[in-house]
Write a structure and sequence with these properties.
The complex is a heterodimer of chains A (about 500) and B (about 240).
Chain A (H helix, E strand, L loop, with lengths): L4 E6 L2 H9 L8 E7 L2 E7 L1 H5 L8 H7 L4 E4 L4 H13 L5 E5 L3 E5 L9 H15 L4 E6 L2 H10 L11 H6 L10 H10 L5 H4 L3 H8 L1 H11 L16 E10 L2 H22 L1 E12 L4 E12 L2 H9 L11 E13 L17 H14 L4 E2 L1 E3 L9 E3 L20 E13 L6 E6 L2 E14 L11 E8 L4 E7 L7 E8 L1
Parallel strand pairs in A: 2-4
Antiparallel strand pairs in A: 1-6, 1-7, 2-3, 5-6, 8-11, 9-10, 9-11, 13-14, 15-16, 15-20, 16-17, 17-18, 18-19, 19-20
Chain B lengths: L1 H18 L32 E5 L3 H18 L5 E6 L6 H6 L7 E5 L3 H12 L4 E8 L4 H14 L2 E6 L12 E8 L14 E9 L5 E8 L2 E4 L2 H11 L1
Parallel strand pairs in B: 1-5, 1-6, 2-3, 2-4, 4-5
Antiparallel strand pairs in B: 6-7, 7-8, 8-9
Helix pairs in contact in B: 4-5
Classes of the chains: A alpha+beta (about 500), B alpha/beta (about 240).
Chain lengths: ~500, ~240
């Protein structure tokens, strides 16, 4: 497909921004300036100041001599980059690939996007009008190459849309500055009297290279379309993405549901054809007011099952705030994985953990309550009770060691052992009586001690001597004494046996 | 004459059960879950799978005993490699202990929640999932409406659900198939050895739909339930005394 690019030029980027923030500055000449080699140099001037002959690069003192009421403000470092990034993110509703072109422009790769706005003319008009109504004085141009679009946006006098293959003709009458050259090269060209581009276009490349260097030739070739120019997108496009622009901004939950359903259907059809399933998906809703709201889902296992994925999104719809309306839906799948062709019918007996329905159930739970609350445990090779289980990372992870049954372990365990009052007759004998939560338990039977040493390479502290005890009512507990039997041994209750 | 009458009543009862959706058991299925004589208390003498059971526990000790019994039941249900979901409020289950009761702890998925509402939501969703062998949920309270929702969910999927409720003072009627109370009992020493014996519980069936409530003593030994007959108990006592 023929590549088409759009360059947007913000003539007064920072001053427009400030005038938006402080409307009283709209009709007053003001400039941004910063100190540079013992001078205060103007870095940006607003339209009113420019009308009076103040331009970028002028000394602030000279400018003050021209007008009396000039306001000189401090230059804000990095403001352009920040503003352009914001504007670029806003521009993602028009094309997925938007790049920032410092210091005052944006480059959009619009290949195959313009037809949604009724052709390139409508597309350009839409963007420029939107920017102008929001207060930014913008000029834009569309061409086959980034260089040509850049040049026409800034220096073009005729049409802003350069038809397919006509970029060379469009460039002929423009000044060399439109080729994005270094100041040094520009000065040289000026000195030699090469004013329009056509005056040096026919000169052999070897001659030009010797005079102006390789960079100059590269810029020229890029503008003419002889050389490729890479674009660094603001947000790297996700390979699995679906877009759904709305004719009218939508605001109702039902409309959002329909949008999600449509997006999922197209995306899943594609994933199914490629044998892939979604692990993580994100729905981005671009609103009329320039903000973006998003909802994300994750799955335990790759899935391209539309009803299931829709159910997961359904749980999130209430979190999407449409405000004045959503004009573009974007469904991205940043994480996909290869999935096996389903043979559910074959395994329909008792599929256990491999069951797709189970994976889908866990996805729904994770979507509603949060993934942190679902746990699966695997045995760990530790005697210390708190470390004897590990959380499994996935549903399919299998234990590497066996679950041990040779030692008695309680059914329920307290996350933090609770101190109990104990009466023990002799050192290393099980206790006779203990009091827990104000209740006295007389111990009838006991097993133990089972000494569990602390793992000194993990943490320091006393070992534990565990006793499994049964009181006169038949209730069974897991008690331990912390450390050796000395003057004041501390006893704890750690668990309950079934 | 009396025999004929009893015969007639039995037949009528069977008919009623059939109308209510209880299928007569296939000839060879008794002792489905290894609970021995307790299973006779259920309609048709079969432990009702594919329904919701309600276990009442007043304190942590009883809840632990319930956990033991439920795990023992799950071990039978999960024989064929199934998985189960354990939704808990307390989050204090110690997975290695499940192995003692015959369940592979890595085949159990634990969901730790904070309030009853979430537990019931997750439980209902889980009970609709036919691939699960069983679902256990711990809640504080359960009212009739909530239990009906759960019951309707299992009727589709035939999953067995267990509800452990720990607020036993408010006990209205529920749509559950059975209401149990399990309390720990002093264990019997094994062959006169000192120390703890096998876990032993007082199993009370407080209410059974279309069945006979009752009271039994059950022990978990050798990887299965062993009902302890009272005569046997007294015999032991005598021997010990």
């Amino acid at each position: 497909m023929q590549k088409r690019f759009m360059a947007i030029w913000f003539r007064h980027l920072t001053t427009d921004w400030l005038a938006l923030r402080q409307p009283e500055l709209k009709d007053v000449p003001f400039v941004f300036a910063k100190p540079e080699r013992n001078h205060i140099i103007i870095t940006a001037a607003n339209p009113v100041a420019e009308m009076q002959g103040i331009y970028r690069g002028m000394a602030a003192a000279d400018a003050k001599a021209i007008t009396t009421n000039l306001q000189v403000l401090d230059h804000i470092e990095g403001k352009e980059a920040k503003l352009l990034r914001q504007l670029g993110l806003w521009g993602i509703r028009y094309t997925p690939i938007v790049a920032v072109d410092l210091p005052d422009g944006l480059i959009l790769d619009i290949s195959g996007c313009a037809h949604l706005w009724g052709g390139e003319r409508g597309y350009l008009k839409e963007i420029v009008n939107k920017l102008r109504t929001s207060g930014y004085n913008a000029r834009a141009a569309i061409a086959d190459t980034i260089g040509a679009a850049w040049a026409v946006a800034r220096f073009g006098k005729a049409t802003p849309i350069i038809e397919n293959g006509l970029q060379v003709q469009a460039l002929l009458n423009l000044p060399p500055a439109s080729l994005r050259l270094e100041t040094l090269v520009l000065e040289k060209l000026q000195k030699l009297g090469f004013t329009p581009i056509k005056s040096f276009m026919q000169i052999p490349r070897a001659v030009l290279r010797r005079r102006f260097g390789e960079g100059f030739l590269l810029r020229l070739a890029q503008a003419m379309g002889l050389e490729d120019e890479p674009l660094k997108p603001l947000i790297p496009p996700v390979p699995y993405t679906e877009r759904l622009p709305c004719l009218e901004p939508v605001r109702t939950a039902k409309a959002i549901e329909i949008a999600i359903q449509k997006l999922l259907e197209t995306l899943c059809a594609r994933l199914q054809a490629e044998g892939k399933g979604i692990r993580k998906a994100m729905l981005k809703c671009y609103r009329v007011d320039g903000k973006m709201v998003q909802a994300a889902i994750t799955t335990n296992r790759g899935s391209h099952n539309v009803p299931h994925l829709f159910k997961l999104f359904e749980l999130q719809i209430s979190k999407i705030e449409p405000a004045l309306g959503i004009e573009l839906f974007l469904l991205e799948a940043p994480k996909v994985e290869d999935i096996d062709v389903l043979q559910e019918k074959l395994w329909a007996g008792n599929p256990g953990l491999q069951d797709t329905a189970l994976a889908e159930l866990l996805d729904r739970i994770a979507g509603k309550i949060g993934p942190g609350r679902i746990r699966r445990y695997l045995p760990a090779e530790h005697y210390w009770p708190e470390r004897s289980v590990n959380q499994a990372a996935s549903l399919t992870e299998t234990p590497t060691t066996k679950w041990r049954t040779d030692r008695l372990r309680p059914m329920r365990i307290l996350a933090r052992p609770e101190p109990v009052e104990v009466m023990a007759l002799l050192p290393d004998y099980p206790p006779k009586v203990f009091t827990y939560k104000g209740r006295r338990h007389v111990i009838e039977k006991a097993d133990g001690p089972e000494r569990i040493e602390r793992e000194w390479w993990h943490d320091k502290g006393e070992h534990r001597d565990y006793y499994a005890v049964e009181d006169s009512d038949g209730q069974r507990y897991w008690l331990f004494r912390s450390g050796h039997y000395d003057a004041t041994p501390q006893w704890y209750l750690h668990g309950f046996f079934a | 004459m009396a025999d004929a009458k009893r015969e007639l009543i039995n037949r009528l009862q069977k008919n009623i059960l059939q109308w209510e959706g209880y299928k007569p058991p296939p000839a060879h299925t008794h002792e489905l879950v290894g609970l021995g004589t307790i299973e006779a208390a259920f309609p048709n003498g079969v432990f009702p799978l594919g329904t919701v059971h309600e276990l009442v526990c007043a304190n942590t000790e009883q809840a632990t005993a319930c956990g033991g019994l439920v795990t023992g039941l799950l071990s039978v249900l999960m024989q064929n490699g199934g998985a189960c979901l354990w939704i808990s409020l307390s989050g204090n289950l110690f997975p290695p202990a499940l192995k003692t009761f015959g369940v592979e702890p890595d085949r159990v998925i634990f969901v730790n929640l904070i309030n009853d509402k979430d537990v019931l939501w997750v439980m209902e969703e889980a009970l609709k999932c036919a691939g699960l062998a069983g679902v256990v949920g711990e809640v504080r309270e359960l009212d009739f409406k909530q239990s009906r929702r759960l019951q309707l969910a299992v009727e589709q999927s035939q999953v067995t659900g267990f509800i452990l409720r720990n607020q036993s003072n408010k006990m209205g009627s529920t749509a559950c198939a059975a209401r149990w109370r399990i309390s720990p009992l002093p264990s019997e020493p094994v062959e006169g050895l000192p120390g703890l014996g096998f876990p032993r519980w007082q199993v009370e069936l407080l209410r059974v739909r279309n069945g006979q409530p009752g009271n039994w003593i059950v022990e978990w030994s050798g990887g299965k339930f062993r009902p302890v007959e009272l005569e046997q108990l007294t015999e032991h006592k005598l021997m010990a005394g």
